Amino acid sequence: MRILVLGSGAREHAIVTALLAEQAGHVITVAPGNAGIAADVETVSIDPTNGALVADYAIENDVELVVVGPEAPLIAGVADPVRTRGIPVFGPGKAAAQLEGSKAFAKRIMAEAGVPTGRPVYAGTVDEAVAALDELGAPYVVKADGLAAGKGVLVTEDRRAAIDHATYWLQHGHVVVEEFLDGEEVSLFFLSDGHDVRPLSPAQDYKRLGDGDTGPNTGGMGAYSPLPWLTDRWGSEQAFVAEVTDLVALPTVRRLEHEGTPFVGLLYCGLIVTEQGVRVIEFNARFGDPETQVVLPRLATPLSGLMLAAATGRLGSVPAPEFRDDAAVTVVLASEGYPENPKTGRRITGIDAAGARPGVSVAHAATGLLDGELVATGGRVLSVVATGADFAEARDRAYAGLHDITLEGAQFRTDIAAKVAR
């Protein structure tokens, strides 16, 4: 199959790696890609948010499936003109992508679909935000309404910090002050064709910069899959997934279908397991990063067939995806100064040595070539991904690979998957 993947991060590199692993002879192109992706497949310089250009390229090159990786092209509506030209697209149109683009929209859909979530209070001014914070009380949860690259959410006991966070994001739009929910977080992906859904395996990511969940929020510093602790409460991963399917994913997709804005693509359910049950923290309209890096290496069912079935409305006839029993761990290597002021342009070495280790691969996120040398071009630079027979082995492999790599001033967490490995 001729496949065009839009995006330039580790998530897209993980998708490409999964497609290549099928050994099905796919012709894969990525726009715009990065240095690591370019070493594996062809990359082209097309603006992934320009739907007309993407559609033209797909038509001219006989592309059979367009896969939209990041949120920005989805929110910009890139899928709509491509789909209008008759090309299957794995990614929701602009209207349905508001599930990620607007917290207020997502909360409305959840309310109308009967999906359990934290109580929201919307604020358009600082005074309204302060009143909402005082009404709901500490711990305070403040969320930017629109896209914020994973940095729009603050959970804090500090009222002043909550007010400052709300004040900052109110410059960019509304904020949502939300009821605090306590528990373990779970990321669960569902493929959707607008009517039916098929679940992938759960993962857990680490959003804070530092060990022990300290420091600022980031786009994600690591992840692991599966989640063995779900078995303690539900008896099996399958039972948990079935509950979330019935309680969250299907009602949400069917509600969007009812509104005339079918959700076709990847529904990311950001969940929290509370004493009262599962609650939704947020929805995203695409594969999560870094969770994709640990979910896809365990996927035994060909990813290309699943995405094409979703894009062409045939998901209902596809069996549930199957997964290998391996444990998977990924650790993100970030630039000095990330997330506020990442230092770029610094040389990276040792990736080949890391990738040569058993069970280890490296997904490039923010890399480029400068005078023929690999350099960091952004904050989250690489994801070192490892699989193993258990979490101890996967974790040891991931960190061994990470220590093969050199980047001046690099930072990473040392506690990814430590609890499950113990």
Q: Which value, in Å, is the CA radius of gyration? A: 20 Å
Q: How many helical stretches?
A: 16
Helix percent reads 25-40%
Q: How many domain modules?
A: 4
Main beta sheet: 5 strands, parallel
Distance between the termini: 42 Å
* Number of E-type strands: 24
Biggest sheet: strands side by side, in what order?
A: 3-2-1-4-5
Structural class call reads alpha+beta
Give the second-level CATH assignment, the architecture of the largest domain: 2-Layer Sandwich
Looking at this structure, what is the CATH superfamily of the largest domain? Answer: ATP-grasp fold, B domain
Unreliable parts? none
Outline of this structure?
The chain is an alpha+beta fold. It has helices at residues 10-21, 35-38, 51-60, 71-76, 79-84, 94-101, 103-113, 126-136, 159-170, 230-234, 237-258, 292-295, 303-311, 351-355, 391-404, 418-421, and strands spanning 2-7, 27-32, 42-43, 65-68, 89-90, 120-123, 140-144, 153-156, 175-178, 184-193, 197-199, 204-205, 208-210, 214-217, 222-225, 264-274, 277-284, 327-334, 348-349, 360-364, 367-370, 373-376, 380-388, 406-407.
